């Protein structure tokens, strides 16, 4: 689909990848961009095409209200995400698994359910920003991996449900991106500008599952070639 003239909704638009996507959509001629933010003070104003929307994606009433005020959308980018950087068993944050599932799985599902009626009638696309850790568990972040894996399966289900309505659903699986979320991860990390380009070019490409960055692509190849050897290697990280 074309970015020029599109009406987009981006969650988590106040910082990191979401802020980069917001700016790039404007630069590339989007007609309107709803900037979904958890707290209203996070949005930069200035461009009249930006419509700030307060929406915590785990809050079903806020999500419903956002959807009823954005019935003109043609592109939904589910970018908001949470990573508490926890393993699954010996965790020092017993609430992490539930919080990550609430945001990464249920929050994304809330948005898709609320916005799909408008997308069905307008046509368009959904991009879900997942993670390469939807395909493999990095032991130190296995809790996040579980929530992203659930979101990946849910995205596949939604793709099948929306295909007959002409709505494309794309999963983007990035490796580490240079944002606050990956502050504790050593380089190399994908610069935000490159990550933004990869997300938006997914709209032009034919693949519905996009592996972003060298690490994600190497893991995808490793999974296809020898899953067990790859898992053994991840245990050492
Ligand atoms: N950075 C990486 O290495 C990496 C790698 C793979 C995938 N990803 C994915 O890329 C996406 C963007 O992450 P990022 O790197 O830009 O991280 P970030 O800088 O930590 O930004 C996360 C964004 O999500 C928002 N958010 C969190 N919980 C929310 C909720 N309940 N409702 C609405 N918004 C919420 C945050 O809002 P507040 O500012 O209000 O907290 C923030 O805008 C995420 O889905 C992440 O999982 C990132």
TrEMBL record:
The keyword Oxidoreductase applies. It comes from the Bacteria. Pfam families: adh_short. The keyword Zinc does not apply. Keywords: Oxidoreductase. One of its GO terms (cellular component) is cytosol. InterPro entries: NAD(P)-bd_dom_sf (IPR036291), SDR_fam (IPR002347). One of its GO terms (molecular function) is oxidoreductase activity. Gene3D superfamilies: NAD(P)-binding Rossmann-like Domain. Belongs to the short-chain dehydrogenases/reductases (SDR) family. This is Short-chain dehydrogenase. It comes from Caballeronia cordobensis (Burkholderia cordobensis). The lineage of its organism: Bacteria, Pseudomonadati, Pseudomonadota, Betaproteobacteria, Burkholderiales.
């Amino acid at each position: 689909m074309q970015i020029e003239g599109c009406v987009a909704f981006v969650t988590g638009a106040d910082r990191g990848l979401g802020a980069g996507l917001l700016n790039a959509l404007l630069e590339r001629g989007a007609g309107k961009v709803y900037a979904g933010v958890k707290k209203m003070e996070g949005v930069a104003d200035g461009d009249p095409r930006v419509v700030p929307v307060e929406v915590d994606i785990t809050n079903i009433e806020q999500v419903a209200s956002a959807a009823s005020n954005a019935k003109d959308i043609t592109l939904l980018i589910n970018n908001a995400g949470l990573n508490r950087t926890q393993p699954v068993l010996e965790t020092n944050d017993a609430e992490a698994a539930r919080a990550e599932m609430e945001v990464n799985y249920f929050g994304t599902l809330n948005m898709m359910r609320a916005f799909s009626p408008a997308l069905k009638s307008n046509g368009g696309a959904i991009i879900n920003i997942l993670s390469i850790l939807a395909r493999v568990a990095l032991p130190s972040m296995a809790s996040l991996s579980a929530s992203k894996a659930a979101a990946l399966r849910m995205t596949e289900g939604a793709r099948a449900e929306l295909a007959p309505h002409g709505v494309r659903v794309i999963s983007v699986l990035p490796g580490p991106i240079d944002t606050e979320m990956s502050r504790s991860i050593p380089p190399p990390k994908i610069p935000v500008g490159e990550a933004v380009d990869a997300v938006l070019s997914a709209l032009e490409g034919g693949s519905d599952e996009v592996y972003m960055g060298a690490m994600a692509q190497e893991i995808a190849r490793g999974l296809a070639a020898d899953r067990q050897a790859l898992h053994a290697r991840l245990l050492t990280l």
